[in-house]
Specification:
Length: 389
C-alpha cells in the first residue's frame, strides 16, 4: 500500500465529519504523491486487536469505504472538539496512544499564546494589549484606556462568543455587539460598564475570557475585516507563508469569519482599496509575512514540531500590522473563495509533503518503526457515499 497518513478527526452529531470535503481533496492529493490517506476518530479504534475501522476515499467510485487498518506511522490531527464529550474522547485517546507521531498538535489557549509570544521582541510590537478577565473593576479600567475592546473566549473558534465594546461619546456608556456561542449575531445594545457582566451572565467570564485592545477594523461601509494567513512547513521541513487573504464580515457582525457569513477577497485587492499605492501595499505584505514566520518559529520552539498555523492579522488605518489570533487547525477555504486555486491546492498538498519529509528523516536515522499492515480483504466492508459516514 505504500506510505500511509492517518487523519484524526471527530464525529459531529449524526456521525458526520465536519471537514469531509477537505479530507477527500487530501486523499486525492495523497494518491498523486504516493501516500495512502485515511480518516478515523477515537470511536473507530478497536483495542483488541489494536486496529482502526478507517474511512478511505475511492476516487474511481467517488465514495468513502470502510476498511480495517493498523495504526499509521504518522497522524494529522484535525480534531475540533465542539463539546465536553468530544474533548474527553480525544484526551483519553492521546493519553492511551502516547507513541503516535503527530504531524500537527494542539497549542495552548489564547491567553497562554499571548504570554508566550510576548517574550519575542520581533513579535511584541504587533500584539494588542491583552488581559485575562477577572472582575468588573479591571474591565472598567481597561475600557478607559481603549476606545474599542474585544472580549474573547480563551479557547473559542469561528467567532463564537466574541463581544465588542465601543466607547460612546461622553465615555459613560458603550455599544455592545457580538456573537453568541452558536455564532448568532447579537443585536447592538447600549450598556454601561456595570451592566456588562450581567448581560453576559452564564458565559463563565472569569475562567474563560480574555479582554483585548480593539484594532479599528471597519471599512467605509461599516463592515469589519481582517486577514487570514496560512503558514506551513514545506517538503524540506521549512516554514513558508503559503498565502494570505482578506475576510470581510457580513453587515452588523463584529467578526469576519467565513463560517459566520464572511466573504473572501485577495490581500492585495483589500490593501490597495485602503492604502492606494503599490509601495505601501508591498511594505505591509512584507511586514505581515515576516511576522507570520516569526510567530510559527517561536511557537514551534515552545511546543515542538507542528505543520501549520492559521494566523489572523489586522492592519490599522496607519498600516501597522497586528496579530489577532493563532489557530493550529486552520481551514484553507479562504483561498478557494478568492479564486486563488494555485494557493488552495498548495495549502492542501503541503501537510502531505511535510509528512513525507518526516518519514524520510525517520528512515534516514533508522528509527525503530512498527510496520504498517492492512487486515485481509475479507475483513473490509461497508461502502459510504461521499457526503455521509
Amino acid at each position: 500500500m505504500g506510505i500511509q497518513l492517518g487523519v484524526l478527526a471527530m464525529y459531529m452529531p449524526g456521525k458526520k465529519l465536519e471537514e469531509l470535503s477537505f479530507y477527500r481533496k487530501l486523499s486525492v492529493c495523497g494518491q498523486k504523491l504516493g501516500v495512502d490517506v485515511f480518516v478515523f476518530t477515537p470511536d473507530d479504534v478497536d483495542d483488541n486487536p489494536s486496529r482502526i475501522h478507517a474511512l478511505a476515499y475511492n476516487q474511481a467510485t467517488r465514495s468513502w469505504t470502510r476498511r480495517w487498518v493498523g495504526f499509521p506511522p504518522i497522524v494529522y490531527d484535525r480534531c475540533r472538539y465542539h463539546g465536553a464529550d468530544n474533548y474527553r474522547k480525544i484526551t483519553r485517546f492521546r493519553q492511551k496512544y502516547t507513541k503516535l507521531r503527530y504531524l500537527s498538535r494542539p497549542l495552548a489557549n489564547k491567553w497562554t499564546i499571548h504570554r508566550l509570544l510576548s517574550e519575542n521582541e520581533n513579535i511584541t510590537p504587533h500584539l494588542p494589549s491583552t488581559i485575562h478577565y477577572r472582575n468588573r473593576k479591571q474591565l472598567e479600567q481597561f475600557l478607559k484606556k481603549h476606545p474599542i475592546v474585544y472580549m474573547k473566549p480563551k479557547s473559542g473558534t469561528g467567532g463564537r462568543g466574541i463581544v465588542r465594546l465601543q466607547r460612546l461619546p461622553g465615555g459613560r456608556s458603550y455599544l455592545m455587539q457580538g456573537r453568541d456561542a452558536e455564532r448568532r449575531i447579537l443585536p447592538a445594545n447600549k450598556v454601561t460598564a456595570a451592566q456588562i457582566p450581567a448581560r453576559l451572565a452564564g458565559w463563565g467570564l472569569q475562567s474563560k475570557y480574555i479582554v483585548q485592545q480593539g484594532i479599528p477594523l471597519e471599512l467605509k461601509d461599516g463592515r469589519v475585516h481582517d486577514f487570514r494567513m496560512l503558514v506551513q512547513k514545506d517538503g524540506q521541513g521549512k516554514w513558508q507563508v503559503t498565502g494570505c487573504a482578506g475576510r470581510i464580515g457580513p453587515p452588523f457582525s463584529v467578526t469576519s469569519n467565513l463560517h459566520g457569513g464572511g466573504t473572501a477577497i485577495s490581500m492585495e485587492s483589500l490593501l490597495k482599496s485602503r492604502f492606494g499605492t503599490e509601495e505601501k501595499v508591498k511594505s505591509i505584505q512584507e511586514t505581515a509575512y515576516t511576522l507570520g514566520l516569526h510567530i510559527a518559529q517561536h511557537l514551534e520552539a515552545k511546543f515542538g514540531t507542528f505543520c501549520e498555523a492559521g494566523i489572523d492579522l489586522a492592519v490599522d488605518p496607519s498600516g501597522h500590522v497586528w496579530l489577532l489570533e493563532v489557530n493550529p487547525k486552520p481551514s484553507r477555504d479562504v483561498f478557494r473563495r478568492t479564486g486563488d486555486l494555485q494557493t488552495y491546492r498548495r495549502a492542501i498538498r503541503r501537510p502531505i509533503e511535510f509528512a513525507l519529509h518526516l518519514l524520510q528523516q525517520r528512515a534516514a536515522t533508522k528509527a525503530n518503526t512498527k510496520p504498517f499492515e492492512l487486515v485481509p480483504q475479507s475483513q473490509q466492508s461497508e461502502s459510504h457515499q461521499d457526503q455521509s459516514v
